[in-house]
């Protein structure tokens, strides 16, 4: 099977898994059900993903692929960190507040085993946050800032409680204009925070 064919098959499998997750939750979404819905063999799913947790980790990783790609390219090409953040922020915000991420997190909140939450974290947060922190290391070069703290500022201001509110149906999806305004405001706030922190640590 060539790469293009596999990518198409994986997209079909992931779409089937999301649909079943919405209907039955994590506990009721079995590998066999997913295989049948995707018109794939159960053996193929286990061969490609190992188990259900592996499948959902792959789904979370695929959902974060554009954000991860932007961060990796910025780090590899030594892009200006502020310009890189300006490019990454809207893609990241669309992803983290998008329907697929929200569906995964709603199901994880209802999963008493914690398995889905761990899979989401492994495929998303545990890969994306370290890349953002590496970008912040570059932004903090020559200053006394802690890159981990600055990463926390960035994520806290950008996301706030928006994802939680989306998960509990208290916040509609953001419009493109709202995303742009939120990202611009976040970068302006981050510049102010880093400038004020630098001034307060001076002689």
TrEMBL record:
One of its GO terms (molecular function) is DNA-binding transcription factor activity. Gene3D superfamilies: Homeodomain-like, Tetracycline Repressor, domain 2. It comes from the Bacteria. The keyword Nucleotide-binding does not apply. Keywords: DNA-binding, Plasmid. The keyword rRNA processing does not apply. This is TetR/AcrR family transcriptional regulator. It comes from Gemmobacter fulvus.
């Amino acid at each position: 099977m060539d790469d293009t064919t596999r990518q198409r098959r994986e997209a079909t499998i992931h779409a089937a898994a999301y649909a079943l997750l919405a209907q039955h939750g994590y506990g009721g979404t079995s590998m066999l059900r997913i295989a049948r819905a995707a018109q794939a063999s159960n053996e193929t799913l286990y061969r490609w993903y190992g188990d259900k947790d592996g499948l959902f980790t792959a789904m979370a990783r695929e959902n974060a692929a554009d954000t991860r790609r932007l961060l990796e390219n910025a780090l590899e090409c030594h892009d200006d960190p502020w310009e890189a953040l300006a490019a990454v922020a809207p893609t990241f915000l669309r992803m983290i507040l998008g329907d697929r991420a929200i569906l995964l997190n709603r199901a994880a909140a209802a999963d008493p085993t914690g398995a889905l939450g761990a899979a989401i974290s492994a495929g998303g947060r545990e890969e994306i946050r370290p890349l953002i922190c590496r970008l912040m290391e570059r932004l903090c070069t020559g200053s006394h800032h802690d890159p981990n703290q600055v990463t926390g500022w960035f994520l806290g201001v950008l996301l706030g409680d928006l994802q939680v509110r989306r998960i509990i149906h208290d916040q509609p999806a953001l419009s493109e204009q709202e995303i742009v305004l939120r990202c611009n405001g976040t970068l302006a706030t981050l510049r102010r925070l880093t400038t004020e922190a630098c001034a307060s640590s001076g002689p």
